[in-house]
Write a structure and sequence with these properties.
about 220 residues, alpha+beta, three-stranded antiparallel sheet
Length: about 220
């Protein structure tokens, strides 16, 4: 992995600077892929697509922010010439589950595609506490994980937004149903002629549903 210069953007509302890391190169060595579709790749980190201004609290998409310059570009002596506010600006961060849902309520999802993405990220965030290396089997009779009402409402809304005609979305919908405890519905969605490349994930989600396991799991194959 080779980091690139930090991109400096302005909050569309406050006009204050924020830093966005960039990569010159990376790879997926050591990456983990999970049944909810999230990939964690230490050697290929990706900057957030949406953030919250550290100054005014405004939620904004990075693609909508004006790029005003770069930090660490080419030579250190050039970095010394940039405004001091750039140097003290914080890097943009991923939002929390609550923040993703608040961003939706405040209008950051101004079209269906943005709403879908924000709700998927909120779902992933709700699963993040479960992504441990020492996961033990958890099912209906051995449950130590209870979702908040807001998380369940988000997942139910995702079920409405996902299109089963698109295979990746069909898989996500089956996984949502499994995590919501609707195991038969999940299995029914998986009874579909998926291409060979989906064989491992389909088999895993099906087995977990049959075992009434509703916790996100790492795909090991």
């Amino acid at each position: 992995m080779r980091p690139g210069p930090d991109k400096v953007c302005e909050c569309p509302k406050f006009k204050g600077p924020a830093r966005v890391f960039t990569l010159l190169s990376g790879n997926t060595l050591g990456a983990e892929v999970w049944t909810d579709g999230k990939m964690i790749a230490p050697m290929l980190p990706t900057p957030p697509e949406i953030t919250r201004c550290q100054h005014c609290g405004h939620y904004y998409w990075i693609s909508d922010a004006k790029v005003v310059g770069y930090l660490g570009y080419l030579h250190d002596d050039e970095t010394l010439k940039v405004p001091s506010a750039w140097k003290t600006a914080e890097r943009v961060r991923e939002l929390t589950e609550a923040e993703y849902l608040e961003a939706i309520r405040l209008g950051a999802a101004d079209n269906g595609e943005k709403e879908l993405r924000l709700r998927i990220w909120a779902w992933w965030s709700s699963n993040d506490p479960l992504r441990t290396k020492s996961q033990r089997p958890i099912n209906r009779t051995n449950s130590v994980f209870i979702r908040s009402p807001e998380a369940i409402m988000n997942m139910e809304r995702l079920l409405e937004l996902l299109d089963i005609k698109e295979l990746n979305q069909r898989l996500k919908k089956a996984e949502l149903l499994r995590e919501l405890g609707r195991f038969d519905d999940a299995i029914n969605l998986l009874d579909h002629p998926f291409p060979r490349k989906y064989k491992t994930i389909v088999a895993l989600v099906r087995r977990l549903a049959q075992e009434e396991d509703f916790i996100v799991r790492k795909i090991t194959d």
